[in-house]
Amino acid sequence: MKIISKKSLGQNFLIDHNILKQIVNIVKIENKEILEVGPGTGNLTQYILKKNPKKIHVIEKDKDLCLLLNEKFNDKVNIINNDILRVSEDTISQSKLIVFGNLPYNISTEILSKWITNLNKEFWFDKLILMFQKEVADRIIAKSGTSNYGRLSILSNWKLNIEKIIDIKPESFLPKPKINSSLLVFSPKKEFFNLKNPKNLEMITRVFFSKRRKMIKKPFNQIFNNSNKISKKLEIDLNLRPQNLKPETYYKITKEYEDLRS
Description:
This protein has helices at residues 17-24, 43-50, 63-73, 108-117, 134-140, 151-159, 198-209, 217-223, 227-233, 247-261, and strands at 13-14, 33-37, 55-59, 78-80, 97-102, 125-133, 160-168, 173-174, 181-188. The chain has 262 residues and is of the alpha/beta class.
């Protein structure tokens, strides 16, 4: 069955066997339950199977690819033909999952943001091993004070430890994308800032970073009626710019906002 990649679905299939082997060796898979997002033609799936997992679930939006995967693996994998953005993560399994994903670049940040904002006290995964466009990965791991630092960095680092594994050249994919990719590993933090609703963190960072080159006095006034009192309490200099505040400061601002509204 010949498969032609669909640009509309952001399909670039990873074909480099050295990279595929490296990915499956990042974490112990044997006897674990696995979720693979966007398995494509099953190149990574076959390497995962060699590691003897307890079970593999794959989520693939493309019906043609689902037929191919069924042909290739039969009952060895549980194929879910759906859009990842429409799937409720905690319905996939009762076990904690190890997640692999060569995410479609056009929705990769949306997928990650959805997973983070949907996190309850219990994590539904042990590890996320995800491929991103390098430019997006750089934003995820960016430190405060750098040009790449922003909303995605703050949101991603809230409940997760993040490690960059490798950059991957376009030649490792078919068809070749025009950009480099990066592989990141996300692990749950044991301790993190307790917020009532992650969507408040999303909102606050959106307000601050909508004018990232301006001083934070204006967004502070937008969010708080008594901004001077709050800024003194949190020891925040209102002459700073959004990228100068550390992630922890944004978590404190969000908590203050939630406390005042409760």
